[in-house]
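Quick illustration, no need to memorize.
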Amino acid sequence: MNIEKLIKENKGTVVDVRSPGEFQGGNVSGSINIPLQEINNRIDELKSLAQPLILCCASGGRSGMATQVLSQSGIECGNAGSWLDVKYYKD
Protein backbone atom coordinates (compact mmCIF):
# COMPACT_ATOMS: atom_id res chain seq x y z
CA MET A 1 0.00 0.00 0.00
CA ASN A 2 1.50 3.31 -1.14
CA ILE A 3 0.23 5.60 1.61
CA GLU A 4 1.84 8.75 0.21
CA LYS A 5 0.09 8.19 -3.15
CA LEU A 6 -3.27 7.48 -1.44
CA ILE A 7 -2.99 10.72 0.54
CA LYS A 8 -2.03 12.80 -2.51
CA GLU A 9 -4.94 11.33 -4.49
CA ASN A 10 -7.40 11.85 -1.59
CA LYS A 11 -8.26 8.14 -1.47
CA GLY A 12 -9.65 6.51 1.65
CA THR A 13 -10.16 8.21 5.00
CA VAL A 14 -7.54 9.78 7.27
CA VAL A 15 -8.15 8.68 10.87
CA ASP A 16 -6.14 10.40 13.61
CA VAL A 17 -5.85 8.19 16.71
CA ARG A 18 -4.43 10.86 19.05
CA SER A 19 -6.35 12.21 22.03
CA PRO A 20 -9.03 14.85 21.39
CA GLY A 21 -6.78 17.48 22.99
CA GLU A 22 -3.89 16.65 20.69
CA PHE A 23 -6.24 16.63 17.70
CA GLN A 24 -7.62 20.08 18.60
CA GLY A 25 -4.05 21.40 18.78
CA GLY A 26 -3.60 20.68 15.06
CA ASN A 27 -4.77 18.11 12.53
CA VAL A 28 -5.04 17.16 8.88
CA SER A 29 -7.97 18.87 7.16
CA GLY A 30 -10.75 16.38 6.51
CA SER A 31 -9.39 13.84 9.00
CA ILE A 32 -11.50 12.32 11.74
CA ASN A 33 -10.43 11.79 15.33
CA ILE A 34 -10.96 8.38 16.91
CA PRO A 35 -8.58 8.01 19.86
CA LEU A 36 -6.68 4.71 20.07
CA GLN A 37 -8.47 3.67 23.27
CA GLU A 38 -11.84 3.94 21.46
CA ILE A 39 -10.87 1.88 18.38
CA ASN A 40 -12.26 -1.45 19.64
CA ASN A 41 -15.62 0.09 20.56
CA ARG A 42 -15.98 1.87 17.20
CA ILE A 43 -15.12 -0.94 14.77
CA ASP A 44 -18.54 -0.77 13.06
CA GLU A 45 -18.18 2.98 12.56
CA LEU A 46 -14.68 2.48 11.15
CA LYS A 47 -15.91 -0.25 8.78
CA SER A 48 -18.45 2.23 7.34
CA LEU A 49 -15.77 4.77 6.35
CA ALA A 50 -14.24 4.93 2.88
CA GLN A 51 -11.33 2.51 2.85
CA PRO A 52 -8.43 2.23 3.02
CA LEU A 53 -8.13 3.95 6.38
CA ILE A 54 -4.96 6.02 6.62
CA LEU A 55 -4.03 6.04 10.29
CA CYS A 56 -1.87 8.68 11.92
CA CYS A 57 -0.90 9.95 15.38
CA ALA A 58 2.02 11.93 16.80
CA SER A 59 4.89 9.60 15.81
CA GLY A 60 3.42 6.40 14.37
CA GLY A 61 3.31 4.26 17.53
CA ARG A 62 -0.39 4.52 18.31
CA SER A 63 -1.38 4.40 14.64
CA GLY A 64 0.73 1.24 14.32
CA MET A 65 -1.24 -0.38 17.15
CA ALA A 66 -4.52 0.75 15.58
CA THR A 67 -3.42 -0.69 12.22
CA GLN A 68 -2.89 -4.12 13.80
CA VAL A 69 -6.30 -4.09 15.53
CA LEU A 70 -8.17 -2.91 12.43
CA SER A 71 -6.38 -5.30 10.07
CA GLN A 72 -7.42 -8.20 12.31
CA SER A 73 -11.01 -6.94 11.98
CA GLY A 74 -10.80 -7.12 8.19
CA ILE A 75 -10.47 -3.37 7.62
CA GLU A 76 -8.09 -2.24 4.88
CA CYS A 77 -5.74 0.24 6.52
CA GLY A 78 -2.19 1.49 6.73
CA ASN A 79 0.01 3.29 9.22
CA ALA A 80 0.96 6.73 7.87
CA GLY A 81 2.99 7.65 10.97
CA SER A 82 2.95 11.26 12.10
CA TRP A 83 -0.06 13.45 11.29
CA LEU A 84 2.46 16.10 10.23
CA ASP A 85 3.68 13.79 7.44
CA VAL A 86 0.09 13.23 6.30
CA LYS A 87 -0.53 16.99 6.36
CA TYR A 88 2.63 17.55 4.30
CA TYR A 89 1.54 15.06 1.61
CA LYS A 90 -2.04 16.37 1.57
CA ASP A 91 -1.14 20.06 1.14
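The mean pLDDT is 96.
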